[in-house]
């Protein structure tokens, strides 16, 4: 059971918008920890797509955006493309565990 | 180009030891915190350990404390993890990652990752 809770899977047709939630607690997201998001196609290196709740690294399309409110965060992907199909993970620091914690991961399927 | 390349994975018996390496290039390795992250088969990502640029501070997930040791050689631009008393549950792909400090927001994130090396603990 992950400290950060993500839906196991989401799906959408090309061109549509999907969101992936990451629900934490008062000891991580709710404590002010920045939330980061990673895209991980199987067998490859994970790629940072959002850092600090809502910041895109250079080279990441503006179709990717992040938000945070209270003890939860979300990753939104608009204009879905086949290349977006991957596992997505959120990451935050848990001050109670004194540990970096990932969400359980969400498999995005582009229909 | 910033690059991280892991090596040293393999098959080891329960109770055995293994040392993983990560060769860094394309950035000033000695200026950055570094991390190890793992992914067990069919599971999600799990943070394993962090080490400060000068090696003076190290942090571990509870499940590996006392068994794993993270270290670095800034002259060789290399990161290591010595894994002892290995268990079946340590079977995973192990990734090294650069732990980057974003001054604008006063937070850290793992911004660049290697492709990983596979460790299998089995008799």
Concise description?
Chain A is mainly beta and 111 residues long.
Radius of gyration of chain B: 14 Å
Low-confidence stretches of chain A: none
Low-confidence stretches of chain B: none
**In whole angstroms, how far apart are the ends of chain A?**
28 Å
- What is the overall number of helices of chain A? 0
By secondary-structure content and strand pairing, the structural class of chain A works out as: mainly beta
Distance N to C terminus of chain B: 40 Å
Helix and strand string of chain A, N-terminal first?
Answer: EEEEEEEEE
Report the order of strands and helices of chain B.
EEEEEEEEEEE
Mean pLDDT over all positions of chain A: 96
Structural class of chain B: mainly beta
- Helical proportion of chain B, percent range: under 10%
User: What's the total number of strands of chain A?
Assistant: 9
Residues in helix, % of chain A: under 10%
Shape field of chain A: globular
Describe the structure.
- In chain A, 0% of the residues lie in helices and 44% in strands.
- Chain A has 111 residues and is mainly beta.
- In chain A, strands 1, 3, 4, 7, 8 and 9 form a six-stranded mixed β-sheet that branches. A three-stranded antiparallel β-sheet of chain A has the order 2-6-5, with no helix packed on it.
- Chain B has 123 residues and is mainly beta.
- Helix content of chain B is 0%, strand content 55%.
- Chain B has no helices and eleven strands.
- In chain B, strands 2, 4, 5, 6, 9, 10 and 11 form a seven-stranded mixed β-sheet that branches.
- In chain B, strand 9 and strand 10 form a beta hairpin.
- Chain B is globular, with a radius of gyration of 14 Å.
- Chain A binds chain B through residues 2, 33-34, 36, 38, 40, 44-48, 51-52, 55, 57, 87, 89, 91, 93, 97-105, and chain B through 4, 35, 37, 44-47, 50, 59, 61-62, 95, 97, 102, 104-105, 107-116.
């Amino acid at each position: 059971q992950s400290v950060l809770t993500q839906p196991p899977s989401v799906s959408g047709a090309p061109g549509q918008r999907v969101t992936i939630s990451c629900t934490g607690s008062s000891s991580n997201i709710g404590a002010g920890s920045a939330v980061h998001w990673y895209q991980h196609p199987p067998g490859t290196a994970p790629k940072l797509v959002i850092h600090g709740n809502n910041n895109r690294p250079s080279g990441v399309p503006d179709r990717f955006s992040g938000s945070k409110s209270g003890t939860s965060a979300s990753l939104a992907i608009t204009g879905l493309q086949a290349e977006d199909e991957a596992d997505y993970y959120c990451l935050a620091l848990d001050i109670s565990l004194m540990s970096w914690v990932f969400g359980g991961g969400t498999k995005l399927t582009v229909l | 180009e910033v690059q991280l390349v892991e090596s040293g994975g393999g098959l080891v018996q329960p109770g055995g030891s293994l040392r993983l390496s990560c060769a860094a290039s394309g950035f000033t390795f000695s200026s950055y915190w570094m991390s190890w992250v793992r992914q067990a088969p069919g599971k999600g990502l799990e943070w394993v350990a962090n080490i400060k640029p000068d090696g003076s501070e190290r942090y571990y997930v509870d499940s590996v404390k006392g068994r794993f040791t993270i270290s670095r050689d800034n002259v060789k631009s290399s990161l290591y993890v010595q894994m002892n008393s290995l268990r079946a549950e340590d079977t995973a792909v192990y990734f090294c990652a650069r732990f980057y400090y974003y001054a604008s927001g006063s937070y850290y994130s793992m911004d660049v990752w290697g492709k990983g090396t596979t460790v299998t603990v089995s008799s």
